[in-house]
Design a protein that fits this description.
alpha/beta; Isopropylmalate Dehydrogenase; ten-stranded mixed β-sheet; two-stranded antiparallel ribbon; 12 strands; globular
Amino acid sequence: MAPRIVILPGDGIGPEITAAARELLDRLGSFEFEEQAVGGASIDVYGTALTEAVLDACRRSDAVLLAAVGGPKWDALVAADPSAPRPEQGLLGLRKGLGLFANLRPVRPSPALLDASPLKRERIEGTDLLVVRELTGGIYFGDSGRDGDTAHDDCAYSVAEIERIARVAFRSARTKVTSVDKANVLETSRLWRETVTRLHDEEFPDVPLDHLLVDNAAMQLVSRPAAFDVIVTENLFGDILSDEAAMLTWSLGMLPSASLGDSGPGLFEPVHGSAPDIAHTGKANPLAMFGSVALMLRHGLG
């Protein structure tokens, strides 16, 4: 039976790069496709960025391939009415509804684009790394609020959350894992380091492990990026470091990503946005979408 892929073209250049991805998949094998609306395209028809019917279709699939969501049309609606639905809520709903907790972002500069990088060619040659970011915990999902002229955002992690993302990193490693934290200051980072170290010793003793403080990791990503293999870190640090690592390749628009859970389908998508300024002009580059297809074949349908 052919693998079942739900395709979510979304907004902007999404339909164009989706068409290119489908053509590629048709050349690679036999697949069953189901195309659904998400993001702004869904808001226009259903009044919500993600319907329950689409989420159910994704849950029944073997993999979900998403192009891009968002655009100035819906930004203007939100500016006029802050309670209006946002296209990005579709992506967040997919991550939550599919139980996705691990974001994988590979970074390998194309030889043809080495001179386009903001770093010197000799600095980035040989770079081939993977950032594994925890998606569901940390400060983004903690309590937050304001009291007069004071604001707070709370950060929390459990041992179970750290263990499951660390397992993804160790299983993805080819040469080593670098765990990134701020254990010299943050209690959550001290728990992170303790848990990753224990899990390594108990389950993955043959995979070399080192630890870096996040400020040092940020520095080394630009000073010696080829020294990294797999970087694993918590949500906030991963959000920042993965974008920093992306610039080694010259552009966020060139990178694919995968979001995975313990079971069920994964979500595969380019890192770039919907680029409405070049939609329908024939200028959209599908390279990141092709990379997302490759990640889907490896991690979702492999």
